[in-house]
Records
---
Amino acid sequence: MHIPDGILPATVCLGGYATAGAATWYALRKISRQGNPREGIPKASLLTAAFLVASWIHIPIPPASVHLVLNGLLGAVLGYFAMPAILIGLFFQAVLFQHGGLTTLGVNATVMGVTALLAHQIFQLRKVIGAGNRTVLAVCGFIAGAGGIALATVAVFTILFSTIPAHLDVQAERASIYALTLAHVPLAIIEGIFTAMLVLFLQKVKPDVLEG
Protein backbone atom coordinates (compact mmCIF):
# COMPACT_ATOMS: atom_id res chain seq x y z
CA MET A 1 0.00 0.00 0.00
CA HIS A 2 2.88 2.38 0.76
CA ILE A 3 4.40 3.77 -2.42
CA PRO A 4 8.21 3.91 -1.97
CA ASP A 5 10.68 6.50 -3.23
CA GLY A 6 11.75 6.40 -6.87
CA ILE A 7 8.46 5.10 -8.27
CA LEU A 8 6.51 8.27 -9.01
CA PRO A 9 7.54 11.29 -11.11
CA ALA A 10 8.42 14.51 -9.30
CA THR A 11 5.26 16.31 -10.42
CA VAL A 12 3.06 13.62 -8.85
CA CYS A 13 5.07 13.75 -5.61
CA LEU A 14 4.70 17.54 -5.46
CA GLY A 15 0.99 17.23 -6.18
CA GLY A 16 0.73 14.71 -3.35
CA TYR A 17 2.30 17.15 -0.91
CA ALA A 18 -0.11 19.87 -2.07
CA THR A 19 -3.22 17.71 -1.60
CA ALA A 20 -1.98 16.29 1.71
CA GLY A 21 -1.29 19.82 2.96
CA ALA A 22 -4.75 20.99 1.94
CA ALA A 23 -6.44 17.97 3.52
CA THR A 24 -4.46 18.41 6.76
CA TRP A 25 -5.31 22.13 6.89
CA TYR A 26 -9.00 21.29 6.39
CA ALA A 27 -8.93 18.61 9.12
CA LEU A 28 -7.14 20.89 11.62
CA ARG A 29 -9.62 23.67 10.87
CA LYS A 30 -12.50 21.30 11.66
CA ILE A 31 -10.74 20.15 14.85
CA SER A 32 -10.16 23.74 16.03
CA ARG A 33 -13.90 24.38 15.82
CA GLN A 34 -14.70 21.54 18.22
CA GLY A 35 -15.65 22.44 21.78
CA ASN A 36 -12.39 21.15 23.29
CA PRO A 37 -9.90 20.33 20.52
CA ARG A 38 -7.33 18.95 22.99
CA GLU A 39 -9.78 16.34 24.28
CA GLY A 40 -9.21 14.08 21.28
CA ILE A 41 -5.40 14.20 21.37
CA PRO A 42 -4.85 11.15 23.69
CA LYS A 43 -7.17 9.00 21.58
CA ALA A 44 -5.47 10.20 18.39
CA SER A 45 -2.02 9.48 19.87
CA LEU A 46 -3.03 5.95 20.81
CA LEU A 47 -4.40 5.14 17.37
CA THR A 48 -1.43 6.79 15.65
CA ALA A 49 0.77 4.27 17.48
CA ALA A 50 -1.58 1.46 16.42
CA PHE A 51 -1.39 2.69 12.81
CA LEU A 52 2.41 2.74 13.04
CA VAL A 53 2.63 -0.81 14.38
CA ALA A 54 -0.10 -2.26 12.11
CA SER A 55 2.13 -1.97 9.05
CA TRP A 56 4.39 -4.63 10.58
CA ILE A 57 1.61 -7.23 10.56
CA HIS A 58 1.83 -8.87 7.16
CA ILE A 59 -0.77 -11.30 5.85
CA PRO A 60 0.35 -13.67 3.06
CA ILE A 61 -2.28 -13.62 0.31
CA PRO A 62 -0.77 -15.38 -2.73
CA PRO A 63 0.75 -14.23 -4.98
CA ALA A 64 1.38 -11.15 -2.82
CA SER A 65 1.70 -10.20 0.82
CA VAL A 66 -0.32 -7.36 2.34
CA HIS A 67 -0.24 -5.63 5.70
CA LEU A 68 -2.85 -4.04 7.90
CA VAL A 69 -3.49 -0.35 7.18
CA LEU A 70 -6.41 0.62 9.48
CA ASN A 71 -7.08 3.94 7.75
CA GLY A 72 -10.83 3.22 7.71
CA LEU A 73 -10.77 2.37 11.41
CA LEU A 74 -8.94 5.61 12.21
CA GLY A 75 -11.48 7.56 10.20
CA ALA A 76 -14.40 5.93 12.02
CA VAL A 77 -13.00 6.40 15.53
CA LEU A 78 -10.94 9.60 15.23
CA GLY A 79 -12.94 11.63 12.74
CA TYR A 80 -10.93 14.64 11.53
CA PHE A 81 -8.00 13.70 13.80
CA ALA A 82 -7.40 10.79 11.40
CA MET A 83 -5.69 12.99 8.79
CA PRO A 84 -2.87 14.39 11.01
CA ALA A 85 -2.60 11.02 12.78
CA ILE A 86 -2.00 9.19 9.50
CA LEU A 87 0.41 11.87 8.25
CA ILE A 88 2.51 11.56 11.44
CA GLY A 89 2.34 7.75 11.35
CA LEU A 90 3.48 7.62 7.72
CA PHE A 91 6.37 9.99 8.46
CA PHE A 92 7.71 7.76 11.23
CA GLN A 93 7.14 4.60 9.14
CA ALA A 94 9.26 6.14 6.37
CA VAL A 95 12.02 7.47 8.64
CA LEU A 96 12.31 4.56 11.09
CA PHE A 97 11.47 1.55 8.94
CA GLN A 98 11.91 2.77 5.33
CA HIS A 99 8.28 1.77 4.81
CA GLY A 100 7.11 4.16 2.11
CA GLY A 101 9.28 7.17 1.36
CA LEU A 102 9.77 10.85 2.06
CA THR A 103 9.32 11.93 -1.56
CA THR A 104 6.07 9.98 -1.71
CA LEU A 105 4.92 10.96 1.79
CA GLY A 106 2.42 13.47 0.41
CA VAL A 107 0.92 10.96 -2.01
CA ASN A 108 0.68 8.22 0.64
CA ALA A 109 -0.82 10.68 3.15
CA THR A 110 -3.38 11.80 0.59
CA VAL A 111 -4.31 8.24 -0.36
CA MET A 112 -4.73 7.00 3.21
CA GLY A 113 -5.73 10.24 4.95
CA VAL A 114 -8.41 11.47 2.57
CA THR A 115 -9.95 7.99 2.38
CA ALA A 116 -9.97 7.94 6.20
CA LEU A 117 -11.95 11.19 6.17
CA LEU A 118 -14.38 9.58 3.70
CA ALA A 119 -14.67 6.58 6.04
CA HIS A 120 -15.50 9.02 8.84
CA GLN A 121 -18.37 10.43 6.79
CA ILE A 122 -19.61 6.90 6.06
CA PHE A 123 -19.53 6.06 9.76
CA GLN A 124 -21.54 9.19 10.57
CA LEU A 125 -24.43 7.74 8.55
CA ARG A 126 -25.27 5.56 11.57
CA LYS A 127 -26.70 8.65 13.26
CA VAL A 128 -29.10 9.16 10.36
CA ILE A 129 -30.03 5.54 9.67
CA GLY A 130 -30.48 4.29 13.22
CA ALA A 131 -28.86 5.99 16.19
CA GLY A 132 -28.42 3.51 19.05
CA ASN A 133 -29.07 0.48 16.88
CA ARG A 134 -26.17 -1.98 17.27
CA THR A 135 -26.81 -3.66 13.90
CA VAL A 136 -26.63 -0.31 12.13
CA LEU A 137 -23.50 0.52 14.11
CA ALA A 138 -21.84 -2.74 13.08
CA VAL A 139 -22.79 -2.34 9.41
CA CYS A 140 -21.58 1.26 9.27
CA GLY A 141 -18.37 0.22 11.06
CA PHE A 142 -17.78 -2.58 8.56
CA ILE A 143 -18.41 -0.33 5.55
CA ALA A 144 -16.15 2.39 6.99
CA GLY A 145 -13.33 -0.06 7.75
CA ALA A 146 -13.59 -1.95 4.47
CA GLY A 147 -14.36 1.16 2.44
CA GLY A 148 -11.31 3.02 3.73
CA ILE A 149 -8.86 0.37 2.55
CA ALA A 150 -10.82 -0.33 -0.65
CA LEU A 151 -10.82 3.33 -1.70
CA ALA A 152 -7.13 3.65 -0.85
CA THR A 153 -6.37 0.55 -2.94
CA VAL A 154 -8.24 1.97 -5.92
CA ALA A 155 -6.35 5.27 -5.54
CA VAL A 156 -2.96 3.53 -5.39
CA PHE A 157 -3.91 1.33 -8.37
CA THR A 158 -4.85 4.41 -10.41
CA ILE A 159 -1.68 6.31 -9.49
CA LEU A 160 0.67 3.39 -10.18
CA PHE A 161 -1.13 2.28 -13.34
CA SER A 162 -1.00 5.76 -14.86
CA THR A 163 2.65 6.49 -13.97
CA ILE A 164 4.54 3.32 -14.95
CA PRO A 165 7.99 4.48 -16.16
CA ALA A 166 8.55 3.84 -19.87
CA HIS A 167 11.88 2.07 -19.27
CA LEU A 168 10.24 -0.75 -17.27
CA ASP A 169 8.46 -3.83 -18.60
CA VAL A 170 4.97 -2.35 -18.79
CA GLN A 171 3.14 -5.67 -19.08
CA ALA A 172 4.99 -7.17 -16.10
CA GLU A 173 4.37 -4.04 -14.03
CA ARG A 174 0.67 -4.06 -14.89
CA ALA A 175 0.40 -7.73 -13.90
CA SER A 176 2.08 -6.95 -10.56
CA ILE A 177 -0.26 -4.00 -9.92
CA TYR A 178 -3.33 -6.15 -10.71
CA ALA A 179 -2.14 -8.90 -8.34
CA LEU A 180 -1.39 -6.42 -5.57
CA THR A 181 -4.81 -4.79 -5.97
CA LEU A 182 -6.69 -8.10 -5.86
CA ALA A 183 -4.72 -9.14 -2.77
CA HIS A 184 -6.22 -6.18 -0.91
CA VAL A 185 -9.83 -7.40 -1.40
CA PRO A 186 -9.66 -9.94 1.47
CA LEU A 187 -7.73 -7.37 3.52
CA ALA A 188 -10.63 -4.92 3.11
CA ILE A 189 -13.02 -7.58 4.44
CA ILE A 190 -10.71 -8.30 7.39
CA GLU A 191 -10.37 -4.63 8.32
CA GLY A 192 -14.13 -4.14 7.90
CA ILE A 193 -14.88 -6.98 10.32
CA PHE A 194 -12.23 -5.75 12.78
CA THR A 195 -13.62 -2.19 12.68
CA ALA A 196 -17.20 -3.44 13.22
CA MET A 197 -16.10 -5.53 16.21
CA LEU A 198 -14.12 -2.64 17.69
CA VAL A 199 -16.92 -0.06 17.42
CA LEU A 200 -19.39 -2.54 18.96
CA PHE A 201 -16.98 -3.06 21.86
CA LEU A 202 -16.43 0.68 22.31
CA GLN A 203 -20.16 1.32 22.17
CA LYS A 204 -20.59 -1.14 25.04
CA VAL A 205 -17.73 -0.07 27.34
CA LYS A 206 -17.05 3.58 26.46
CA PRO A 207 -19.56 5.02 23.97
CA ASP A 208 -18.29 8.59 24.31
CA VAL A 209 -15.16 7.50 22.37
CA LEU A 210 -17.30 7.18 19.25
CA GLU A 211 -18.76 10.64 19.56
CA GLY A 212 -17.00 13.02 17.23
Note: The chain has a mean pLDDT of 89.
---
Amino acid sequence: MKRVVKVEIITDSLEVENIIKLLEEVGVSGYSVIKDVTGKGHRGVRSGYEFADLFKNSYILVVGEENQMHKVVEAIKPIIKKFGGLCIVSDVILRIHRGDD
Protein backbone atom coordinates (compact mmCIF):
# COMPACT_ATOMS: atom_id res chain seq x y z
CA MET A 1 0.00 0.00 0.00
CA LYS A 2 1.15 3.46 -0.82
CA ARG A 3 -0.41 6.83 -0.03
CA VAL A 4 -0.82 8.96 -3.14
CA VAL A 5 -2.92 11.88 -4.33
CA LYS A 6 -5.63 11.37 -6.96
CA VAL A 7 -6.53 14.18 -9.34
CA GLU A 8 -9.73 13.84 -11.35
CA ILE A 9 -10.34 16.35 -14.09
CA ILE A 10 -13.52 16.81 -16.08
CA THR A 11 -13.25 19.40 -18.80
CA ASP A 12 -13.98 20.18 -22.42
CA SER A 13 -12.79 17.37 -24.71
CA LEU A 14 -11.01 19.86 -26.94
CA GLU A 15 -8.60 20.59 -24.04
CA VAL A 16 -7.55 16.98 -23.38
CA GLU A 17 -4.43 17.17 -25.55
CA ASN A 18 -3.34 20.39 -23.82
CA ILE A 19 -3.85 18.80 -20.41
CA ILE A 20 -1.90 15.69 -21.42
CA LYS A 21 0.93 17.93 -22.58
CA LEU A 22 0.91 19.69 -19.19
CA LEU A 23 0.90 16.34 -17.37
CA GLU A 24 3.95 15.26 -19.31
CA GLU A 25 5.69 18.58 -18.64
CA VAL A 26 5.40 18.03 -14.88
CA GLY A 27 6.66 14.47 -15.21
CA VAL A 28 3.48 12.43 -14.94
CA SER A 29 4.19 9.03 -16.46
CA GLY A 30 0.65 7.65 -16.65
CA TYR A 31 -2.95 8.78 -16.79
CA SER A 32 -6.38 7.57 -17.90
CA VAL A 33 -8.79 9.41 -20.19
CA ILE A 34 -12.47 8.62 -20.57
CA LYS A 35 -14.07 10.43 -23.49
CA ASP A 36 -17.67 11.53 -23.94
CA VAL A 37 -18.46 12.01 -20.27
CA THR A 38 -21.98 13.30 -19.77
CA GLY A 39 -23.61 14.86 -16.79
CA LYS A 40 -25.13 17.96 -15.31
CA GLY A 41 -23.28 20.90 -13.82
CA HIS A 42 -23.83 24.57 -13.22
CA ARG A 43 -24.15 25.07 -16.99
CA GLY A 44 -26.86 22.45 -17.27
CA VAL A 45 -26.81 19.05 -18.96
CA ARG A 46 -23.74 18.46 -21.11
CA SER A 47 -23.94 15.68 -23.66
CA GLY A 48 -22.04 17.07 -26.65
CA TYR A 49 -22.44 17.16 -30.37
CA GLU A 50 -22.72 13.72 -31.93
CA PHE A 51 -20.39 14.22 -34.91
CA ALA A 52 -17.49 16.08 -33.30
CA ASP A 53 -15.87 16.76 -29.92
CA LEU A 54 -17.75 20.03 -29.67
CA PHE A 55 -19.45 20.53 -26.32
CA LYS A 56 -18.33 17.13 -25.07
CA ASN A 57 -16.53 16.53 -21.79
CA SER A 58 -13.73 14.14 -20.98
CA TYR A 59 -12.54 12.71 -17.67
CA ILE A 60 -8.84 12.47 -16.87
CA LEU A 61 -7.54 10.49 -13.89
CA VAL A 62 -4.00 10.71 -12.60
CA VAL A 63 -2.38 9.63 -9.33
CA GLY A 64 1.03 10.43 -7.92
CA GLU A 65 3.07 11.95 -5.16
CA GLU A 66 1.60 15.02 -3.44
CA ASN A 67 4.15 17.55 -4.72
CA GLN A 68 3.78 16.34 -8.32
CA MET A 69 -0.04 16.43 -8.13
CA HIS A 70 0.15 19.95 -6.72
CA LYS A 71 2.07 20.91 -9.88
CA VAL A 72 -0.63 19.23 -11.98
CA VAL A 73 -3.40 21.22 -10.31
CA GLU A 74 -1.52 24.50 -10.71
CA ALA A 75 -0.79 23.73 -14.38
CA ILE A 76 -4.39 22.97 -15.33
CA LYS A 77 -6.00 25.72 -13.26
CA PRO A 78 -5.94 28.24 -16.18
CA ILE A 79 -7.63 25.72 -18.49
CA ILE A 80 -10.41 24.99 -16.00
CA LYS A 81 -10.93 28.72 -15.41
CA LYS A 82 -11.07 29.48 -19.14
CA PHE A 83 -13.04 26.51 -20.47
CA GLY A 84 -14.88 25.31 -17.39
CA GLY A 85 -14.76 21.96 -15.77
CA LEU A 86 -13.98 20.35 -12.48
CA CYS A 87 -10.83 19.26 -10.67
CA ILE A 88 -11.17 16.96 -7.68
CA VAL A 89 -8.14 16.25 -5.50
CA SER A 90 -8.16 13.54 -2.87
CA ASP A 91 -5.78 11.49 -0.76
CA VAL A 92 -6.00 7.81 -1.62
CA ILE A 93 -4.23 4.55 -0.94
CA LEU A 94 -2.81 2.72 -3.93
CA ARG A 95 -3.19 -0.97 -3.06
CA ILE A 96 -2.19 -2.72 -6.26
CA HIS A 97 0.24 -1.43 -8.81
CA ARG A 98 2.59 -3.43 -10.97
CA GLY A 99 6.11 -3.03 -9.71
CA ASP A 100 5.09 -1.48 -6.37
CA ASP A 101 4.38 -4.68 -4.46
Note: Residues 66-83 form the longest helix (18 residues).
---
Amino acid sequence: MKPIQLADPISALLTKSMDLRSINQQVLAANIANAETPNYAPARFHFAEALQQAMTKSGVAMQTTDEQHITGGPGSIADVSGRIVREPATNPLGDNNGVSVDEEMVALSENQLMYETAAQLLKKRMTMLKYAISGGQ
Protein backbone atom coordinates (compact mmCIF):
# COMPACT_ATOMS: atom_id res chain seq x y z
CA MET A 1 0.00 0.00 0.00
CA LYS A 2 1.32 3.38 -1.01
CA PRO A 3 1.80 5.78 1.93
CA ILE A 4 -0.31 8.91 2.07
CA GLN A 5 1.59 11.99 0.90
CA LEU A 6 0.57 15.25 2.47
CA ALA A 7 2.43 17.29 -0.11
CA ASP A 8 1.63 16.53 -3.70
CA PRO A 9 4.36 16.96 -6.36
CA ILE A 10 3.01 20.31 -7.55
CA SER A 11 2.98 21.77 -4.03
CA ALA A 12 6.46 20.38 -3.41
CA LEU A 13 7.67 21.97 -6.64
CA LEU A 14 6.17 25.36 -5.78
CA THR A 15 7.63 25.25 -2.27
CA LYS A 16 11.09 24.30 -3.54
CA SER A 17 10.92 26.97 -6.20
CA MET A 18 10.17 29.58 -3.53
CA ASP A 19 13.08 28.33 -1.39
CA LEU A 20 15.51 28.54 -4.32
CA ARG A 21 14.23 31.96 -5.40
CA SER A 22 14.77 33.18 -1.84
CA ILE A 23 18.43 32.13 -2.04
CA ASN A 24 18.70 33.77 -5.47
CA GLN A 25 17.32 36.99 -4.00
CA GLN A 26 20.10 36.98 -1.39
CA VAL A 27 22.76 36.40 -4.05
CA LEU A 28 21.43 39.25 -6.21
CA ALA A 29 21.20 41.56 -3.20
CA ALA A 30 24.84 40.75 -2.31
CA ASN A 31 25.87 41.63 -5.87
CA ILE A 32 24.13 45.01 -5.63
CA ALA A 33 25.65 45.66 -2.20
CA ASN A 34 29.12 45.07 -3.68
CA ALA A 35 28.62 47.23 -6.77
CA GLU A 36 31.34 49.60 -5.55
CA THR A 37 33.78 46.94 -4.32
CA PRO A 38 36.95 46.76 -6.45
CA ASN A 39 37.69 43.37 -8.08
CA TYR A 40 34.30 41.97 -7.05
CA ALA A 41 33.01 39.20 -9.32
CA PRO A 42 29.21 38.97 -9.23
CA ALA A 43 27.69 35.64 -8.27
CA ARG A 44 24.98 33.80 -10.17
CA PHE A 45 22.77 31.18 -8.54
CA HIS A 46 21.96 28.42 -11.04
CA PHE A 47 19.05 26.16 -10.15
CA ALA A 48 16.41 26.29 -12.90
CA GLU A 49 17.86 23.51 -15.04
CA ALA A 50 18.31 21.13 -12.08
CA LEU A 51 14.77 21.88 -10.90
CA GLN A 52 13.41 21.18 -14.36
CA GLN A 53 15.28 17.88 -14.50
CA ALA A 54 14.00 16.91 -11.06
CA MET A 55 10.42 17.63 -12.12
CA THR A 56 10.76 14.99 -14.81
CA LYS A 57 11.93 12.34 -12.36
CA SER A 58 9.52 13.08 -9.54
CA GLY A 59 6.25 12.58 -11.31
CA VAL A 60 5.69 16.09 -12.61
CA ALA A 61 6.22 15.10 -16.18
CA MET A 62 7.42 17.61 -18.72
CA GLN A 63 5.97 17.05 -22.12
CA THR A 64 8.55 16.43 -24.82
CA THR A 65 7.91 17.08 -28.46
CA ASP A 66 10.86 15.16 -29.83
CA GLU A 67 12.29 11.79 -28.86
CA GLN A 68 15.77 13.35 -28.63
CA HIS A 69 14.73 15.61 -25.74
CA ILE A 70 16.41 14.80 -22.45
CA THR A 71 14.00 13.36 -19.90
CA GLY A 72 16.38 12.26 -17.14
CA GLY A 73 17.32 14.24 -14.02
CA PRO A 74 19.34 14.16 -10.82
CA GLY A 75 16.66 12.96 -8.42
CA SER A 76 13.74 14.30 -6.47
CA ILE A 77 12.73 17.93 -6.18
CA ALA A 78 13.92 17.96 -2.54
CA ASP A 79 17.46 17.11 -3.72
CA VAL A 80 17.81 20.24 -5.86
CA SER A 81 20.09 22.73 -4.17
CA GLY A 82 21.48 24.88 -6.97
CA ARG A 83 25.02 26.17 -7.25
CA ILE A 84 26.66 29.56 -7.08
CA VAL A 85 29.09 30.53 -9.83
CA ARG A 86 31.26 33.66 -9.86
CA GLU A 87 31.43 35.61 -13.10
CA PRO A 88 34.58 37.76 -13.33
CA ALA A 89 34.41 41.14 -15.02
CA THR A 90 34.47 40.93 -18.81
CA ASN A 91 35.54 44.57 -19.13
CA PRO A 92 38.84 45.01 -17.28
CA LEU A 93 38.52 48.82 -17.17
CA GLY A 94 38.34 50.79 -13.93
CA ASP A 95 38.22 48.88 -10.66
CA ASN A 96 37.61 45.47 -12.33
CA ASN A 97 34.16 45.18 -10.74
CA GLY A 98 31.80 43.07 -12.85
CA VAL A 99 28.51 44.25 -11.31
CA SER A 100 26.04 46.11 -13.49
CA VAL A 101 23.49 47.60 -11.11
CA ASP A 102 20.91 47.88 -13.91
CA GLU A 103 21.23 44.19 -14.82
CA GLU A 104 21.11 43.16 -11.17
CA MET A 105 17.96 45.21 -10.58
CA VAL A 106 16.26 43.61 -13.59
CA ALA A 107 17.24 40.13 -12.35
CA LEU A 108 16.06 41.03 -8.85
CA SER A 109 12.67 42.18 -10.15
CA GLU A 110 12.26 39.07 -12.30
CA ASN A 111 13.18 36.80 -9.41
CA GLN A 112 10.76 38.57 -7.08
CA LEU A 113 7.96 38.29 -9.64
CA MET A 114 8.59 34.56 -10.06
CA TYR A 115 8.63 34.12 -6.27
CA GLU A 116 5.32 35.92 -5.87
CA THR A 117 3.79 33.91 -8.71
CA ALA A 118 4.80 30.64 -7.05
CA ALA A 119 3.41 31.90 -3.72
CA GLN A 120 0.08 32.80 -5.33
CA LEU A 121 -0.15 29.41 -7.07
CA LEU A 122 0.61 27.60 -3.82
CA LYS A 123 -1.99 29.68 -1.97
CA LYS A 124 -4.58 28.88 -4.64
CA ARG A 125 -3.73 25.18 -4.43
CA MET A 126 -4.13 25.19 -0.64
CA THR A 127 -7.46 27.01 -0.96
CA MET A 128 -8.71 24.37 -3.39
CA LEU A 129 -7.53 21.60 -1.05
CA LYS A 130 -9.30 23.22 1.90
CA TYR A 131 -12.46 23.52 -0.20
CA ALA A 132 -12.30 19.83 -1.14
CA ILE A 133 -11.70 18.74 2.47
CA SER A 134 -14.64 20.78 3.71
CA GLY A 135 -16.93 19.07 1.22
CA GLY A 136 -17.42 22.16 -0.89
CA GLN A 137 -18.85 24.26 1.90
Note: The first helix runs from residue 9 to 33.
---
Amino acid sequence: MKQLRNFLKLSGSDHSLLAITFILLGAIRLGLFFLAFRNLLKLLQKINQQNIRFPCSTQKSQISVGKIVWAVNVATRYTPGGAKCLARALTTQFLMNRYHYSSELRIGVAKEQGGQLEAHAWIEYQGWVAIGNLPDLSRFIPMPSLEGVKL
Protein backbone atom coordinates (compact mmCIF):
# COMPACT_ATOMS: atom_id res chain seq x y z
CA MET A 1 0.00 0.00 0.00
CA LYS A 2 2.87 2.34 0.81
CA GLN A 3 4.38 1.64 -2.61
CA LEU A 4 1.12 2.55 -4.33
CA ARG A 5 0.92 5.79 -2.34
CA ASN A 6 4.51 6.60 -3.28
CA PHE A 7 3.75 5.87 -6.94
CA LEU A 8 0.72 8.13 -6.90
CA LYS A 9 2.83 10.96 -5.45
CA LEU A 10 5.08 10.96 -8.53
CA SER A 11 4.73 13.60 -11.22
CA GLY A 12 3.21 12.83 -14.61
CA SER A 13 6.61 12.85 -16.32
CA ASP A 14 7.96 10.42 -13.69
CA HIS A 15 4.99 8.12 -14.29
CA SER A 16 5.70 8.19 -18.04
CA LEU A 17 9.43 7.64 -17.60
CA LEU A 18 8.80 4.76 -15.24
CA ALA A 19 6.27 3.13 -17.58
CA ILE A 20 8.60 3.45 -20.57
CA THR A 21 11.53 2.13 -18.57
CA PHE A 22 9.50 -0.83 -17.35
CA ILE A 23 8.42 -1.73 -20.90
CA LEU A 24 11.91 -1.16 -22.29
CA LEU A 25 13.55 -3.27 -19.59
CA GLY A 26 11.13 -6.12 -20.30
CA ALA A 27 11.69 -5.84 -24.05
CA ILE A 28 15.48 -5.86 -23.61
CA ARG A 29 15.25 -8.89 -21.33
CA LEU A 30 13.28 -10.69 -24.04
CA GLY A 31 15.74 -9.47 -26.66
CA LEU A 32 18.66 -10.88 -24.69
CA PHE A 33 16.83 -14.19 -24.50
CA PHE A 34 15.77 -14.47 -28.14
CA LEU A 35 18.35 -12.49 -30.12
CA ALA A 36 22.06 -12.65 -30.55
CA PHE A 37 23.72 -9.83 -28.57
CA ARG A 38 25.00 -8.19 -31.73
CA ASN A 39 21.53 -8.20 -33.30
CA LEU A 40 19.99 -6.73 -30.15
CA LEU A 41 22.55 -3.91 -30.15
CA LYS A 42 21.83 -3.23 -33.84
CA LEU A 43 18.11 -3.14 -33.15
CA LEU A 44 18.51 -0.76 -30.21
CA GLN A 45 20.74 1.51 -32.30
CA LYS A 46 18.23 1.48 -35.14
CA ILE A 47 15.34 2.35 -32.82
CA ASN A 48 17.38 5.12 -31.22
CA GLN A 49 18.24 6.65 -34.57
CA GLN A 50 14.61 6.88 -35.60
CA ASN A 51 12.68 9.90 -34.54
CA ILE A 52 10.18 8.12 -32.33
CA ARG A 53 9.06 10.41 -29.54
CA PHE A 54 8.46 9.02 -26.10
CA PRO A 55 5.49 10.38 -24.19
CA CYS A 56 7.89 11.90 -21.68
CA SER A 57 10.30 13.26 -24.30
CA THR A 58 11.37 16.62 -23.00
CA GLN A 59 14.47 18.70 -22.92
CA LYS A 60 17.65 17.02 -21.76
CA SER A 61 17.78 19.11 -18.65
CA GLN A 62 14.41 17.86 -17.44
CA ILE A 63 15.40 14.18 -17.40
CA SER A 64 18.69 13.84 -15.55
CA VAL A 65 21.00 10.86 -15.57
CA GLY A 66 20.09 10.34 -11.92
CA LYS A 67 16.41 10.21 -12.86
CA ILE A 68 17.10 7.62 -15.58
CA VAL A 69 19.08 5.47 -13.13
CA TRP A 70 16.29 5.86 -10.59
CA ALA A 71 13.72 4.70 -13.17
CA VAL A 72 15.80 1.65 -14.13
CA ASN A 73 16.30 0.71 -10.48
CA VAL A 74 12.59 1.04 -9.69
CA ALA A 75 11.54 -0.83 -12.86
CA THR A 76 13.99 -3.62 -11.99
CA ARG A 77 12.46 -3.93 -8.54
CA TYR A 78 8.99 -4.50 -10.00
CA THR A 79 10.00 -6.65 -12.97
CA PRO A 80 9.02 -10.27 -12.38
CA GLY A 81 12.24 -12.16 -11.77
CA GLY A 82 14.22 -8.90 -11.64
CA ALA A 83 16.74 -8.02 -14.30
CA LYS A 84 20.38 -8.91 -14.68
CA CYS A 85 23.11 -6.34 -15.00
CA LEU A 86 23.30 -6.49 -18.81
CA ALA A 87 19.58 -5.78 -19.27
CA ARG A 88 19.79 -2.95 -16.75
CA ALA A 89 22.89 -1.50 -18.42
CA LEU A 90 21.39 -1.69 -21.92
CA THR A 91 18.17 -0.08 -20.71
CA THR A 92 20.11 2.72 -19.03
CA GLN A 93 22.28 3.26 -22.08
CA PHE A 94 19.27 3.34 -24.40
CA LEU A 95 17.53 5.95 -22.26
CA MET A 96 20.71 7.99 -21.82
CA ASN A 97 21.26 8.01 -25.58
CA ARG A 98 17.63 9.00 -26.02
CA TYR A 99 18.17 12.04 -23.82
CA HIS A 100 21.51 12.88 -25.45
CA TYR A 101 23.83 11.78 -22.69
CA SER A 102 26.87 9.97 -24.02
CA SER A 103 27.56 6.83 -22.06
CA GLU A 104 29.66 3.75 -22.47
CA LEU A 105 28.59 0.16 -21.96
CA ARG A 106 31.30 -1.77 -20.17
CA ILE A 107 31.41 -5.51 -19.77
CA GLY A 108 34.01 -7.03 -17.51
CA VAL A 109 35.02 -10.54 -16.59
CA ALA A 110 36.50 -11.95 -13.43
CA LYS A 111 37.38 -15.34 -12.09
CA GLU A 112 35.42 -16.53 -9.08
CA GLN A 113 37.16 -18.26 -6.20
CA GLY A 114 35.98 -21.59 -7.63
CA GLY A 115 37.69 -20.81 -10.90
CA GLN A 116 34.55 -20.06 -12.91
CA LEU A 117 34.32 -16.96 -15.05
CA GLU A 118 31.91 -14.30 -13.96
CA ALA A 119 30.78 -11.34 -16.06
CA HIS A 120 29.28 -8.01 -15.14
CA ALA A 121 27.96 -5.07 -17.17
CA TRP A 122 27.81 -1.44 -16.17
CA ILE A 123 27.40 1.99 -17.69
CA GLU A 124 30.01 4.69 -17.40
CA TYR A 125 29.13 8.33 -17.78
CA GLN A 126 31.71 11.08 -17.58
CA GLY A 127 34.19 8.83 -15.84
CA TRP A 128 31.90 7.44 -13.15
CA VAL A 129 29.71 4.37 -12.97
CA ALA A 130 26.11 5.43 -13.57
CA ILE A 131 24.59 2.00 -13.01
CA GLY A 132 26.04 -1.39 -12.16
CA ASN A 133 28.52 -0.28 -9.54
CA LEU A 134 29.69 -3.02 -7.21
CA PRO A 135 31.89 -2.78 -4.12
CA ASP A 136 34.35 -5.10 -5.85
CA LEU A 137 33.96 -3.79 -9.39
CA SER A 138 37.73 -3.39 -9.71
CA ARG A 139 38.18 -7.15 -9.82
CA PHE A 140 36.39 -7.24 -13.21
CA ILE A 141 38.71 -6.80 -16.16
CA PRO A 142 36.87 -4.67 -18.72
CA MET A 143 36.62 -6.08 -22.20
CA PRO A 144 37.43 -3.76 -25.11
CA SER A 145 34.82 -1.08 -25.59
CA LEU A 146 32.13 -1.54 -28.21
CA GLU A 147 32.33 2.17 -28.98
CA GLY A 148 32.80 2.66 -32.71
CA VAL A 149 32.62 -1.05 -33.48
CA LYS A 150 30.63 -1.74 -36.62
CA LEU A 151 27.87 -4.13 -35.70
Note: The chain is about 50% helix and 15% strand.
